[in-house]
């Protein structure tokens, strides 16, 4: 579904819909003092609700 992938993810999430190539590029990150960086990825979802989907052809 949409929203956070709790309990693992915190903050905003990125949602793709449809059949295309996906790409996400972050802004530059200063990781010189970082001990780890984590991304949470979910492929597919059981709940496909109207609030999670936007038909761009209607806009």
UniProtKB/TrEMBL annotation:
Transmembrane segments: none annotated. InterPro entries: Reelin, Reelin_subrepeat-B. One of its GO terms (biological process) is neuron migration. Pfam families: Reelin_subrepeat-B (PF21471). Belongs to the reelin family. PANTHER family: REELIN (PTHR11841). This is Reelin. It comes from Cuora picturata (Vietnamese box turtle). The lineage of its organism: Eukaryota, Metazoa, Chordata, Craniata, Vertebrata.
